Amino acid sequence: MSTIITNESLSNRPLASEALEQAFLNARTFNAFTKETVSDETLKQLYELMKWGPTSMNSQPGHFTFLKTNEAKQRLKSTLLAGNQEKSLAAPVTVIISSDTQFFNHLPEQFPAIPDAKKMFESNAKFCQATAERNSSMQGAYLIIAARMMGLDCGPMSGFDNNAVDAEFFPEGRYKSNFLINLGYGDSSGNYPRGPRLTLEQTTRII
Question: In whole angstroms, what is the distance from residue 206 CA to residue 198 CA?
């Protein structure tokens, strides 16, 4: 008799070491990519995977602008620090990770457990901004891990003028850029030597 595997039976099972290596242990930040393109279908699949990462009150404030064409990249170029221009123009895709300042409008459908959730954010601009920034950052991180799991490589970066990006791509003011990610299939010849990580003793406390 065959075994039926449900979502419940799959939960809490450690992944194979190969998956951990691809997503974390052997993964690198890439500065160069091969000429292989990333299809629109792949980008759609990427979103469909990463969207399941948790956010506060299921707020999902992340907004993702995928720049693929030369015209779109040229619009981005002047907003980048000099050291980020060439590699971003050469990357198959650059993603603008931004925050939706009006994310609370989706809460009645996305988080009906708290009927007045929308009002909580509408009436508190500071709370709204902090929630949008924190959770869009988390969603950007989910996108990196999801991309790696799909066989893509990433080059996240923050060396750009946020105000200039917002003026160029989000002039209506609703979205606020957070950080950028270059996406594609990595060329390891552009990698720097891998930097060390802080130790468990330096960064953790179990109480």
Answer: 16
